[in-house]
Every structure is written in structure tokens, then in C-alpha cells.
Amino acid sequence: MMRHAIPPTRFFSQTPNDLIRHPRLNGTAVRLLQWALSLPGDSRETLQSIGEKMPEGRIALRRARQQLEAEGFVHTRRSQCPRTGRWTTRVLVSNVALRTAEEIEAAFAAPGDRMPTVGAPAGRAVGTSPKGKNTDEVNTPHPAAPLVARAAAVLHRVGRMEARLALGVAEAAGLAPLAARWLANGASELELRTAVTAGLPTAVHSPAGFIARRLRDKLPAPRTCADPAAPAAPLPECPGCGDPLPRGQATGVCTPCTGAVPLPVPAAVPAPGGPSGAERVRAALAVARPAPRA
Fold first, then answer.
1. Cβ–Cβ under 8 Å, residues 212 and 204
2. What is d(CA 220, CA 214) in angstroms, rounded to the nearest whole number?
3. Which of 48, 101, 159, 229 gets the highest tally of CB atoms within 10 A of its CB?
4. Above 50 in pLDDT, residue 174?
5. Which three-class secondary structure state does DSSP give residue 149?
6. What is the pLDDT of residues 9-67, one digit of tens each?
């Protein structure tokens, strides 16, 4: 059997080979679990909503879920709130089989979508964290509070203009420091909005993760630009006459004051009673006009 595989550079999920080659799971069960594991942590999808998007029928999907539950890849827990009496159902999907009660309890108690390691702790992998490596989140000064508030307002406006990038209050507050670094580096609000909204895919399943990725990947370098609100520096003047100096000359006297170029002489004023300007123009035109032919 020949194999041709190109590793993806983005939008991929890692699946253990033991899960793909599981002898007691059919193809529908493996695909259903892979689909659920590929979703972002804040997705509102359920196994039922995923099954509605798959071409297999309800009976095949029900059998697939039963197989996943029997093999320890899917666990369901119902709990009742003591204050309100409301029942809630939580479904846990795992890329490894969880068998013991301790493993299942630790997985339900783990924050977010991070799964606890099953078994004894292993040694540190060599080369996973090179010494001296610097990332975007390390040794970075935090932007000022007014800049963070301005960046949060920009993110809220992006959500109002583009429904696919709508953020909640907590999500916008979490992304505001990262967006504020754009403004601190000299980028305008228009540049920030364009970088976030340009070339959107058809569906954005995690707006917060999508925006965070773009803000990190497209962060511009700091720009050295003058403050537009600062007053303009005064132009250098000639100490002799007080006129502004020519462009590029910061000190010294102007050219007329040095005597290199004589000052312009004002035009002579015609004497009283002489021909007016219109009469002089008509006389000049009469002299320049050619004589008529015989």
C-alpha cells in the first residue's frame, strides 16, 4: 500500500492512532468523536447537532454514540443546582478511553478543554522549550488603560459591523490588551479593523480565537511618528531682518542680508500726467502688428 500525505499547516486536529484503529469502533463512531474533538473550546455544538450534519442516519449515530460510551470515550453527567433546582447535563468527550472513576472525575474537573494526563507523570520532553525563547506574550509592556478601553471599543464596533465576529463583553475585554498593542505601535483604528475583517471565511466558529490569532500574527512593528497634537516647531529666522530662513538652513543669516544677491528694486512709478498703462499696452500692440498688404 502506497501512502501520500501532506501535513496541514493550519486548521488540523491530532488524533491518536489507537483511536483510528480501534477494533470495536465503527467508522461512524470514530468520525463522530473526531468531529467533536476538532471543535474549539467555546463551541456550543453537541453530539446531536454534529450528528445532524453527518450523512449517516439516526440509527447509525445512536449506535455510534453507544459504542463511544461503552469504550470510555464519551461520558454524560447530570447534576441539579441546589439553589434553583434546575437540572443540567454535561457531556465529556475524550481522545483517550477513561475507565476509572478517578480519571473521569479529574477530566470533568479539568478547566476548559485541557485533558489531564492519564498515568504517571513522564519526564520533560527535550527541546520543547528552548532556553531564551521569547514569545509575543513574554516581556511585553502592558498598554495604558485608556488605550485598552479604546481597543475594546474598536472590537465591539467590529462585531456590530460583521456579525461573524461578534464578541461578548468578557471576550472583548480579554482581547483588548492585545488590540491595544496595535494602537500603541502606531496603527490606526482603520488598520486594526481591516486586519481583523479582511478575507473572512464563510463561517467563523470561534470569533474570539479567530480575532486573537489575527491580532497576534499581523501585529505591526512599532512606528516612530510624531504626536499630531504636539505644537509645530517654530521656523528658524534670520537675525538681521527676521524673515524665515530658506529650507534646509537652520542657523545664520538669509541670502539678502549677506549681500550675495541684491535686494529687488521696486518698479518705477509713472510720472503724473504721463500715459496710462492701457495706453502703453495699445501702443506696444500697434508697433508689433504687421503692416497691411497693398
1. no
2. 11
3. 159
4. yes
5. helix
6. 777 777 888 888 899 999 999 999 988 888 887 788 888 888 888 888 889 889 999 99
User: What SS3 class is residue 165?
Assistant: helix
Report the SS3 class of residue 55.
coil
Are 151 and 193 in contact by the 8 Å Cβ rule? The answer is no
Separation between Cα atoms, residue 44 and residue 92, nearest integer Å: 13
Which H or E run includes 88?
strand 87-93
Burial of 184 (0-12, 13-18, 19+ CB in 10 A): middle
The C-alpha cell at 271 is 510720472
Q: Tens digits of per-residue pLDDT, 58-74?
A: 898 899 999 999 999 99
Contact 140, 122 (CB under 8 A): no
264 is written with which cell numbers?
Answer: 529687488
Between CA 31 and CA 64 the distance in angstroms is: 9
Smallest Cα–Cα separation from 238: which of 251, 220, 229, 224?
251
| Measured CA distances, 105 to 86, 217, 258 (Å) | 21, 37, 92
CA 283 to chain centre: 75
CA distance 108 to 286: 107
Which cell numbers in the block locate residue 227? 504626536
Tell me the C-alpha distance between 40 and 161, whole Å: 23
Q: What's the whole-model pTM score?
A: 0.38
